[in-house]
Structures are given as C-alpha cells and as structure tokens.
Amino acid sequence: MKVAASSLRKGAVVDMDGKLYVVLTAENIHPGKGTPVTQLNMRRISDGVKVSERWRTTEQVERAFVDDRPHTFLYQDGEGFHFMNPENYEQVVASEDVVGDASQWLQDGMTVTLSTHEGVPIALELPRTVTFEITETEPAVKNQTASSSYKPAILSNGARIMVPPYIASGTRVVILTEDGSYQERAKD
C-alpha cells in the first residue's frame, strides 16, 4: 500500500527494495525556500542496520502490512522474549533486537502491543506507565524542598531512576515507559 512520506510516524513499517524497515524517528522539515522533505531514521528488520532516508513530503512510499495485536508477556530465556496471543493462545518469540530498551520495563503477565509481519515479530509497544517498587534509595534530608531536588533510587527490576526526596524504600511508584522517568506514587 502506497502512502505519502509525510504521513509516516514512529513504529510504521515500510518496504524498500523488498526489505522491511521500522521507522525510529520521523521529522517533516519545511525550509523557508524549497521543497518540504520528510527525514526518516529507520532500522532494517532483517539485520538491525540503521539507515537514514529523505523524501519529498509528496513522494509515495510502500507501507508494509503489519498486524498489531495485544499479547501477554510470559518470560525471557536464551531464545528471546516469549509472548502469548490471548485470543488463540499461540506463542511468539521476539528477539532482543525487537524488544530493545523496553526489556527493562517488561513484567510477567503484562499486556503489550506486538507488531508482526507474516508471523514474525518486528516491533513492540509498551503500556504508557508501569508500577515498580523502590528497593534502595537515600533517606530523606530535612528542610530539603520537594520541587527542585531529586535523589537516585533503584527499582525492583534493577533500573536506576530519579525520585523526589520524600520517596522511601519500599514505596511503589509509577514510571513512564517512554523515558523511564518518575511519574507519581502508586495508588495501591
């Protein structure tokens, strides 16, 4: 299916010369003089090579058909990350390249959106937020303002984040998955 280059967004899959590429970043550039262009940074799905392409915004690009479905994360082993389709209970194994940095936020039983092309996983989309427990952090310092200062903390998954000074060890916190930043204390 042909689409305008300017309509491509992060996570879209394009077919160039018979090879599939997943879009990592898409930027529409409108110079003061000249033709507007779309700058795409992409990763080739077959071998992980990153490429950068520039098209005029009106040029047509072949978009590959991708099946986006919710899957449940089961576990990780030497083969990769195992996901199950909750509708038909089929299991799919995604490689380390497909999961990437998202691996630190995966939790057993978490529902994610897994993009597949002809049955092969090519991209993963996490929920917007996840909840983890703080396992280690410095004690709060008296008379420290909450607005300007943050302190380092280690989550139950081993990730390091910055939290407000009033957060103590054992507190459950909500984390934004897109950048790994502290959002709020968990309501549970």
UniProtKB/TrEMBL annotation:
Record pathway: Protein biosynthesis; polypeptide chain elongation
Q: Biological process GO terms, please?
A: peptide biosynthetic process
Q: Describe its function.
A: Involved in peptide bond synthesis. Stimulates efficient translation and peptide-bond synthesis on native or reconstituted 70S ribosomes in vitro. Probably functions indirectly by altering the affinity of the ribosome for aminoacyl-tRNA, thus increasing their reactivity as acceptors for peptidyl transferase.
What is the protein's given name? Elongation factor P
Which PROSITE patterns does the annotation name?
Answer: EFP
One GO cellular component assignment for this chain's record is: cytosol
Localization in the cell: Cytoplasm
The UniProt record lists the Elongation factor P C-terminal domain at 130-185
Which molecular function terms from Gene Ontology are attached? translation elongation factor activity
Mainly resides where? cytoplasm
Q: Which family does it belong to?
A: Belongs to the elongation factor P family.
Q: Which UniProt keywords apply?
A: Cytoplasm, Elongation factor, Protein biosynthesis
